[in-house]
Amino acid sequence: MPSHCYKQALGSPRCSGMAPFIANSLGCLLLLLFFLASSSTTFSDALTDLEVQYIAHRQLLTFDQSGKEVGDQTAAGGGGLDPNLKFENPRLKNAYIALQAWKKGIYSDPFNFTANWVGPDVCKYSGVFCAPAQDGSKLNVVAGIDLNHQDIAGYLPQELGLLTDLALFHLNSNRFCGVIPMSFCNMSIMFEFDVSNNRLVGPFPQAVLCWKEAKFVDIRFNNFEGCIPPEIFTRPQLDALFLNNNRFSCSIPPTLGRSTVSVVTMAFNNISGCIPHSIGAMPNVQEIMLAGNSLGGCFPSEIGNLRNVTVLDVSGSGFVGPIPSSFAQLKSVEMLDISCNRMTGSIPEEICKLPALKNFTFASNFFTGVAPACSPQSRKDVVIDDGNNCLAGRPMQKPAKDCDPAVTKPVDCSNDVCSGGGGPPKKAESPTDDPHLPASGGMSHPPPPAPVHSPPPPVQSPPPPAPVHSPPPPVPSPPPAPVHSPPPPVQSPPPPAPVHSPPPPVHSPPPPVHSPPPPVHSPPPPPVQSPPPPVHSPPPPVVQKPPPKPEQSTPPPAKSSPPQPDVVLPPNLGYQYSSPPPPMFPGY
After folding, report:
1. Which of 60, 275, 447, 544 is 20 to 30 Å from the Cα of 339, by its Cα?
2. DSSP string covering 370-397, please?
3. More confident position, 226 or 414
4. Cβ-based neighbour number of residue 120 at 10 Å
5. Which residues lie across from 223 on neighbouring strands?
């Protein structure tokens, strides 16, 4: 693919004008390669396709026809439990059955993270956190599991459905294969669910639709396929939804406008059709990433109703026609990326004068005019990229022979169904086909790229109970310069209500502004208000060490949101969503 429009690992197109950024990044890349070479013995090899098939086959052999029922069997031999084992209560007995079945389903554990998963005291297992049950019984139960970034290979057994008190399930940056069992539907109080950056397959996991209290759902960087179910946008408490870098197809459901999310990322799938007109009705959304899909047609004018949006990335998705005048109503937008499409006409001055604008990329289109306020020299406080267009007198533009076919036959959006007209969605006629754009009209779609730090926006979750040891916090690192790329997460705010809460997870350099790759350590959810998560979030620590003493966190500014039930999560994690680092081997 030509250099003007290409797909990055974390999901957004990078267009012209990136030479300084690339030069500054070269040193970091060489340093990373040196580190990997010197630490090659620390990491395990990527799974081969044969190993993936073997693990998935092992999982299928354990399923019954319904996929829900689980038996009272241990992993040790498929028989009944050892009668000599003593459990504090029946729920911890069920947790023992579930975790032993899971340990049996592990194919590779290079760091021996689950080596101490032995005996009836499951609350002492690595990555397992217990807390009092929320049903008033005062029983001690398994409330959270965190195996982030342990590079474990295996499958998810259906016995995990016995963990009915689980509210937090973090599994990002591992090598789990197969499907998510329907028995997960039994986890009725699930609050944070992160299985990003694994090798999971199948349709959208239906168990997710069972969870009425889910606040944070991250399944990006896997191989899920099929349609995105309309019901996911009607979950009453959902605040962050990460679906990018999978194999989803079909169109965006019209229920999108009913979603309560503050962040939604569907970038780098194979979604087609129009952006639904209901998008303008989204009440809380602040970040939308649709880059690198097979969408098309003109933009619906309702996008201008998104007065709270700060990040809008619709690059590389085959859009045509002029920029709608309603874009001038995006008063809060900081990063706007419409690059690598087939848009025509002129860039309105009102857009370049938006008060919060910091980065505006419209490179690699067929624009023929630009207002004086939109030239890179006119606003020193805004990064503007206008390369590879048809702008007279501007450097690095398309040759006339490439511009003429598109300019002489502009798309009339008044007749385009995507913008509210009566015709079918318009696809730009291929002008000799522009050598700088893929022939399909959007960006090419190889298998999902290797995940990189993505901006999993932190979602505030209910404060945990009494402070308990939690995984050590990571070392913060400076965020990258604003550049156009899909948002995977910057440091997220501490949880609301001042409560003792464990330190945040390890921060690693966040990814470029606009793209959503997968998080790592997510905090326990707060009870009521949840400020929208930021664009970038650091990756999780590689190895868990003895937890530090809990610190007192200060509450972030409150944001009104529908009252939520008092959900108590395990007191083990910090208060930040982190994104998993990119996989180190081919095959992810």
Report:
1. 447
2. E-GGGSTTT-TTSEEE--SS--TT-SS-
3. 226
4. 17
5. 201
Cβ atoms within 10 Å of 304's Cβ, excluding its own: 18
Closest to 530 (Cα-Cα) out of 76, 215, 129, 72: 215
Q: How many Cα atoms sit within 13 Å of 450 on the Cβ side? A: 9
Q: List C-alpha distances in Å: 282 to 228, 276, 525.
A: 17, 11, 22
Q: Which residues pair with 242 in a beta bridge?
A: 218, 265
Q: Rounded distance, CA 19 to CA 15, Å?
A: 10
Q: Report the pLDDT averaged over residues 388-399.
A: 94
Q: What confidence category does residue 522 fall into, taking pLDDT thresholds of 50, 70 and 90?
A: very low
Question: Tens digit of pLDDT for each residue in 336-362?
Answer: 999 999 999 999 999 999 999 999 999
Q: How far apart are CA 182 and CA 207, in angstroms?
A: 5
Q: What is the rounded CA–CA span in Å between residue 538 and residue 512? A: 12
Q: What tokens were used for 206?
A: 């239906």
**Tell me, what's the pLDDT at 541?**
42
Q: What is the DSSP string of 322-366?
A: PPPGGGGG-TT-SEEE--SSEEEEEE-HHHHT-TT--EEE--SSE
Are 342 and 388 in contact, with CB atoms under 8 Å apart? no
**Three-state SS annotation for 89-140:** CHHHHHHHHHHHHHHHCEEECCCCCCCCCCCCCHHHCCCEEEEECCCCCCCE
Return the ∠ at Cα 411 (arms to 405 and 412), rounded to 5°. 145
Cα–Cα distance for residue pair 162/168, rounded to 1 Å: 14
pTM score of the predicted model: 0.69
Q: CA–CA separation, 89 vs 307, rounded Å? A: 51
Taking each continuous run of H as one helix and of E as one strand, the counts in the chain are 5, 27
**Among the listed residues 427, 485, 422, the one whose alpha carbon sits nearest the alpha carbon of residue 273:** 427
- Specify the higher pLDDT residue, 434 or 400: 400
**Tokens (6 digits) for 45:** 């090899």
Q: Determine the Cα–Cα distance for residues 386 and 397; give it in Å rounded to an integer.
A: 8
Q: Output DSSP code: residue 307.
A: T
CA 310, 315, 321, 322 torsion-angle sign = positive
Say which range, 70-74, 116-120, 139-143, has the weakest mean pLDDT: 70-74
Q: What is the DSSP string of 478-514?
A: PPPPP-SS----SPPPPPSS--EEPPPPPP-PPPPSS
The residue ranges of DSSP E strands in 126-185, in sequence order, are: 128-132, 140-146, 153-154, 168-170, 175-178
Residue 385 has pLDDT above 90, yes or no: yes
Buried residues in 238-249 as b, exposed as e (16+ CB within 10 A): bbbbbbbbbbbb
Q: Is the dihedral of CA 154, 72, 188, 147 positive or negative?
A: negative
Residue 232 sits at the vertex; the CA angle it makes with 231 and 237, to the nearest 5 degrees, is 110
